[in-house]
Glutathione transferase (Haptolina ericina), 218 residues
Amino acid sequence: EALRLALAIGGVEFEDKRVPFPAWRKIKPTTPWGTLPVLELADGSQLAQARSILRYIGRHTGLYPADPLAAQRVDELMDALEDLAATITSVGQGLPKEEQEAARLTAVSEGGAIYDALANIDAFIEANGQGGYAIGSEMNIASILMFTTLGRLVGGVFYGVPPTVIDPFPNIMAVRKTVGSNSAVAEWYSARIEQISLTSLSLAEQVLVSWAETTCDD
């Protein structure tokens, strides 16, 4: 989803092809690494691996800093977001659903592993971001990736993680609001809802839609 939003914010027209699960077995061998997403360029060549594609889009749209230090900070935060996702997935892994939910609820409480990871991210934004942006004072792919990662975090993808999990972190909340209030993001989700009904979207995407609508109404 971060790739789509980066293209939309960057003003790049693209065809959004979503692969239904039954069709994946046939398509998988045609992809560079047997994974999605894949970005197909105008000449038919394919780019793969999500973070690599996101940086490519960022470089071509001005959403990835030219300054090496600023670029490193963007990469650092994106790696931290990957670590956060890995931490969430690992908590309670292999346990029955009820026990997994209980373990994750403990992890998102103060002093828990997920809470601490979010606190570190919030402090990093405090030190490196400005005006509701994760890094620097302009929109870049780190803010976009944070927006979509948070949507998955609170969107019911992970059992036991409540939708209020990010509320204690003001800098994270500010980034969420800044990206959600971007006009290109609002237009993207408005068009998406026109294409298919809101209830047909994934839970995470429904959260992102609600954030875009809420922040644009503020």
About this structure: The domain at 68-183 is CATH 1.20.1050.10 (Glutathione S-transferase Yfyf (Class Pi); Chain A, domain 2). The first helix runs from residue 2 to 9. Residues 12 and 195 are 19 Å apart (CA to CA).
